[in-house]
Amino acid sequence: MAYDPKELEKKALAAIDKHKLMFIEHIVAFLPCSKTTFYDLKLHESNTIKKAVEEMRVSKKTKMLSNWINSETPSLQIAAMKMISEEHEAHRLNGTRQEIKHEGGIKSTLIEWKPAKK
User: Which pTM was predicted?
Assistant: First the structure.
């Protein structure tokens, strides 16, 4: 059966919108074609589909982050802070940064050899 790539692309975009899909792999389940056909028609390379999926991801991430920030649950507030913090702030929250101080140069120690007494 021959499929029209433009028609499948329209159906993919409709599925993304209706089912809030965030992964290319999930789109195929809502199309009237097989996974092989989807990839053979190079629909996974469609900039329109990629953009729709990315916009869905960003909108969901933004909504979730806003909910976490406005939450009264401390663990969600900490998770939100980790998401929006600068690198050094995130390390402070996680307790993961370890500072290693090293003095440059080579130090040598002179060992004096003394023969054993007989």
Answer: 0.68
- Give the whole-angstrom CA distance, residue 82 versus residue 92: 10
* CB-based contact 78:95 (threshold 8 Å): no
Cβ atoms 17, 1 nearer than 8 A: no
What gap in Å lies between CA 3 and CA 36, rounded to an integer? 12
pLDDT tens by residue, 14-63 = 999 999 999 999 999 999 999 999 999 999 999 999 999 999 999 999 99
How far CA 59 is from CA of 3, 7, 13, 81, 107, in Å, comes to: 31, 26, 16, 18, 57
Contact present, 13 and 49 (Cβ < 8 Å) = yes
CA pair distance 26, 19, nearest whole angstrom: 10
CA separation, residue 114 to residues 36, 108, 117 (Å): 81, 19, 9
